[in-house]
Amino acid sequence: MKKEDFKAVQVCEHVYWVGAIDWSIRNFHGYLTNRGTTYNSYIVLADKITLIDTVKAPFKDELQARISSLIDPKEISIIISNHSEMDHSGCLPGIIDLVKPERIFASVMGVKALAHHFNIDSEITAVKDGDTISLGNMNITFIETRMLHWPDSMFSYLSDEKVLFSQDGFGMHIASSERFTDEIDEHILTDEAAKYFANILLPYSNLIPKVMEKVEKSGIDIGIVAPDHGPVWRTEADIKKILDLYVSWSEQKPLKKAVVIYDTMWQSTDLMARSICEGLEEGGINVKLMPLSSVHRSDVATEILNAGAIVVGSPTINNNMFPTVADIMSYLKGLKPKNLIGAAFGSYGWSGEAVGQIENILREMKVDIVSEGVKIKYVPDSETILKCNKLGKHIAEKLNNINQ
Ligand code: FEO
Question: Model's pTM, two decimal places?
Answer without folding.
Answer: 0.97
